[in-house]
Amino acid sequence: MIACWHIVPAVRAGNTVVIKPSPLTPLSTIRLVEIMNEVLPAGVVNVITGENSIGAALSAHPGVAKMTFTGSTETGKKVMASAVATLKRLTLELGGNDAGIVLPDADPKAIVEGLFWGAFINNGQTCAALKRLYVHDSIYEEVCRGLADYAGKIAVGDGLDEASILGPIQNEMQFNKVRELVDDARVNGGRILTGGAPMDRPGYFYPITLVADVDHGVRLVDEEQFGPALPIIRYSDIDEVIARANQNPAGLGGSVWSADAQKAKRYAMQLECGSVWINKHGTIQPNAPFGGVKQSGIGVEFGAEGLKEFTTIQTVLS
């Protein structure tokens, strides 16, 4: 899907494209380009695969006028640095550490399913997944219990097994990071509600993990986990929690959960993020611009604004 929303607006705006997928997940992109090339003229959409050094060569190449990148903030900084010599135009959709804030008037039973899938869609391996959950003290334990109960109904296993709902972490590096962050949270007083250790089976299988009673200063809260582990943070003052949520250098998405949508919207507009949702999280749509602020990126995708990212302005005066 990310390849689609990189390639299609670029072609629609009249460009030719070279796409380089992650070396860890190239096959679907190769097949996508094969299908496109059944109808497109030769050379309009091209795919190259290999290690990350190829991406660096593309971003430095004088024949490339525009770079669009989705990935980590650290790699995005490298793309930006290597594009300096040619002053390329850039669209960078980078890492997030999205905060979800549950107001005291929210109904825990009504929001648990939305909270769960906001955090664990694709097993948490999504840029705009809910990655930090702040819950008001008055309903904190009820939300924790509801999430734990819901998680217990979700089967994690081999994707070829029809009984599986969620699968493994994609690669060893990310698997080890999730394990380290959860272990660090446990050592620092985190209460493991579900999961908390790798599954006893071959592969990078890590169970859905909910960690309560953690706070800022714990790595699982401060860093992007990009996997099936969610920290749940207790708060009592809404203005304070918004300020604390905004302390993070990431600013991709955020959400506010409440029985009063208008009140939620007022608080949502105080969050420093490119997209903010009310009573849901991470639901992007093609007619609405999507992008980050702060260290979560530059520019937007989707909508007319995203299409214009693949154009330049020329003024003709006579």
TrEMBL record:
It comes from the Bacteria. Gene3D superfamilies: Aldehyde Dehydrogenase, Chain A, domain 1 (3.40.605.10), Aldehyde Dehydrogenase, Chain A, domain 2 (3.40.309.10). Keywords: Oxidoreductase. Pfam families: Aldedh (PF00171). GO terms for molecular function: oxidoreductase activity, acting on the aldehyde or oxo group of donors, NAD or NADP as acceptor. The active site is at E93. Residues 1-316 form the Aldehyde dehydrogenase domain. InterPro entries: Ald_DH/histidinol_DH, Ald_DH_C, Ald_DH_CS_CYS, Ald_DH_CS_GLU, Ald_DH_N, Aldehyde_DH_dom, LUC3-like. Belongs to the aldehyde dehydrogenase family. This is Aldehyde dehydrogenase. The lineage of its organism: Bacteria, Pseudomonadati, Pseudomonadota, Alphaproteobacteria, Hyphomicrobiales.
